[in-house]
Amino acid sequence: MPHEVSAASHAVPASQRHSVTLDTFQEQRVPTDAQIAPDGTQVAFVLDEYVEGEQKPRGRIWLVGADGGDARPITSGPYGDTNPRWSPDGTRLAYLSAREETGRDKPQVYVVPASGAGEPPRRVCAVPNGAGSLTWSPDGTRLAFLSPDGKEPSSEPKVNEPQRHQRLWTVRPEHDIPRPVTPAGVTVWTYAWSPDSSRLAVYSSDGPGETDWYRGQLGVVSAAGGAVRPLTHLEHQADALTWSRNGERVLYVSGEWSDRGIVGGDVFVVNADGGEPRNLTPGIAYSPSWLAELPDSGGFLFAAWNGLTSSTGILNAADGIATLLAPDFILGERFQPRLSPTADLRRFAVTHSDQETLGDIYLGELAADRASISWRRLTHLNTLLEETLELAPTRRIAYDGADGWRIEALFTPPPRPTAGELPPLMVYIHGGPTGAYRDAFGDLTTQRFAAAGYAVLRPNPRGSIGYGVAFANAVLGDMGGKDFADILAGIEYVTAQGWADPDRVGIQGWSYGGFMAAWAVSQTDRFKAAMMGAGICDYISFHAQTNIADWDMRFIGATPTENPDAYRARSAITFASRITTPTLICHGENDACVPVNQAYAFYRVLRERDVPTELAIYPREGHGLRERDHNRDLYERSLRWFDRFLKNERS
């Protein structure tokens, strides 16, 4: 597979290189949402970067030519711009932007000439509650978007978890009055236009809450507005909706996912008039996440999670045979590897990262015989960091987990190990469990700990995405069971190779990784220290307060009222009397997904048992930390904690 690799960084003198620091987090520029122009000559994308004096990164819409050259910003909204989308004729670019008059959390629809010069951006319409998920109709006559319905509920008092439905709307670019497409009382989570612009496929739910997403269903609605007509009955979530080119079928990716936004599973097709869906990829050993039908072929170009990497290939609709054309080229979107193609699927824009590329825009080209894909780098957004950082190299490893299952992981040794001494081992668990580590640029947590002298193990235990549906579903009803055994097996494998000190092992993670850290210290004294980040320690109280109560019922396989023992059996707090491991607890104060009571509860039981512990609650933060100073504190605090128990106590 042709793939451009720059050798520039190899020529930089060692004296100009420096280790990853806390400031690196603020210096990195992150491109997302690459969108190719209809004629394939330009790519629009969002570039997130920190601005001096601001706590959160700000996004701008940028353009770069398909022949490379200097990328340039074309927007300058005060709160950030997102969701660039080309008009089908390529003359205009629509996007979302929040402004002073509407507020940071209520972005509006804007249109700007495709050249990005001359005429200023024009707001298309007023959306009182803000817009999201913007797209053009294929005929270019309308823009569609999602927006909450009705007035914001009063919080004095908050009554019955006040929530609003999210409706699908359309507006004509030359007309300033948006019209609802879907009826009141239905929440639309994702949608796709039919090729003739007359209908839209939607994934929707009757309930408006985040938890209702888990029970969504697939339907079709007229673009003129009307009732949503069900297509089939889904048992799992669906996303990546698309239509066949003749408009007769709807295709989608479906799986049992822990988080909205993560997409990867099996590909299904159903008649656009309804019927029984057909699984096109039963037993596939990776996780397709995006697809589009090729012209005149009966096949589909697709993108997928594939183990520790991403893949792009062609799926034959008749026999379900998938051919990988780019088996090992990471597509950089965090939760859904995907392409942005021209109409003929010959060219496509992607974001890409590897061990030497922090994140850039690439152009892919499908060969005329559809037998290969070539990639070309269009931007160099982080050249200063790429050429001056001393990055710890990462290698892919595999070992036998529980029941002899093959488990993959990333192992990162310290770039400057202490002579004559094995490094301490940091086990870093990903969130989800529907998630996966990929062999891209080492995340800053990994690189920061490696620079501080740690070896870092990042396993993809069962439950991870990218290994097929059976592997992902193996965690259902068994969270903290064989997935935890897979993690322990990885520790034994790494230490048996002589790569790390078996007597100095720490564990940390965020979200599901935070649950696993808490669970680990309740099940074994193998770890010298732990960090529980936004983790669950008590599933019964979690169920009572979370905004995703369907998640625990689906992944535990029980309800707390009918089978409370199943909830207690998977809760670290049940086994608190066993815990002796020093544990740092970090959490966002406004976390609706994993409420902060989980942090307070675990802190209380550890304090009452005189187990060394520390609690850090970050104000204004939700399930992930966004503010610059909070991220800095988290990095500093966690490193100090592990140094104290994995380094200092030994010395």
Observed structural traits:
eight-stranded mixed beta sheet; four-stranded antiparallel beta sheet; 16% helix; alpha+beta
Please tell me about this protein's structure:
The protein is of the alpha+beta class and 651 residues long. The chain has a domain at 392-648: Alpha/Beta hydrolase fold, catalytic domain (Rossmann fold, 3-Layer(aba) Sandwich). Helix content is 16%, strand content 32%. The longest helix is centred in the last third of the chain and has 21 residues, at 628-648. The protein is globular, with a radius of gyration of 24 Å. The protein starts with 17 loop residues before the first strand and ends with a helix.
Summarize the structure.
The chain has eleven helices and 38 strands. By secondary structure, the chain is α+β, with helices and mostly antiparallel strands.
- What is the CATH architecture descriptor of one domain? 3-Layer(aba) Sandwich
Radius of gyration: 24 Å
Major sheet description: 8 strands, mixed
Helix content: 10-25%
Could you state the oligomeric state of the chains shown? single chain
User: Count the helices. How many?
Assistant: 11
Q: State which percent range the strand residues make up.
A: 25-35%
Mean pLDDT: 93
In CATH, the homologous superfamily of one domain goes by the name Alpha/Beta hydrolase fold, catalytic domain
How would you describe the shape?
A: globular
The CATH topology of one domain is Rossmann fold
State the end-to-end CA separation. 49 Å
Structural class by secondary-structure content: alpha+beta
Number of strands: 38
Strand order of the largest sheet: 31-32-34-33-35-36-37-38
Which regions have little confidence, pLDDT < 50, spanning 5+ residues? 1-9
CATH class of one domain: Alpha Beta
